[in-house]
Amino acid sequence: MERLITNYYEVAAIVLFGIGFAILLLHNNLIKKIIGMNIMDTAVFLFFIAKGYIQGAEAPIILDVNSKTTNFVNPIPTALMLTGIVVAVSITAFALSITIKVYEHYGTIELDQIMKMGG
Questions:
Q1: Residue 119's pLDDT is what?
Q2: Per CATH, is 2-55+73-116 categorized as 3.40.50.2300?
Q3: Secondary-structure breakdown of the chain: helix, strand, coil percentages, each rounded to the nearest 5
């Protein structure tokens, strides 16, 4: 139980991922599926950023040449997640535009109704 409390960011990320995955699987509405995908994206971002954080470490920017600090936070997970956020926003915009086209063609965004129409 102590490890769950210590790693509460990771636990929250796993719970968020599970919620997003459940939304993605259980709902037939395309907008709800996109929201579930975004929740999963956010969970992955939270998890990687939490793994890259080191308690008591400083940002990897050296302001003073005489500084004796050797404990720095790893900047790579943060940089990768910034790129991931840009990709996630792009995929969300693309998915929403496809959803608009599906609605214009079928008149609904419910997948079960689209499948009944011969989708």
A1: 55
A2: no
A3: 70, 5, 25
